Amino acid sequence: MFVEQSLRLSDAAILAMLTRAVAKAAEIGQPQCIVIVDASGVTLGQIRMNGAKYLSLKSARAKARTAASIGAETTAIPEQVGLPIAAATEGDITRLGGGLPILMDGQLIGGIGVGSGSPEQDVAVARAALDAISAQ
Q1: Is 124 inside any structural domain?
Q2: pTM (two decimals)
């Protein structure tokens, strides 16, 4: 067959994820940069909250694209590979915490990256965003 069906995030899902992520970041008192990409790494939605570090938008995008590329948390990249792969990809791939894959019915449909807080804060905000679509 020459055509494949695939799942993709709706606009409503992207907005729900961003809304939930912003709420979680506000709850923990850490403004964040949040980026959502599709499975090919194209940005579908992003926000830099007031007070978030502006350079964290770049790391959040790298985290989202990495998670979408490998289908796993960014920290799954082995530590000894982290710096060389970041250098080889000009920062497009990272092992910094805060990048999670977006899976639906076992299918990889994208990635979310969060940056500006500690790795634990970034992951908490990313998980909150995923929770926004997990019950759907």
Answers
A1: yes
A2: 0.95
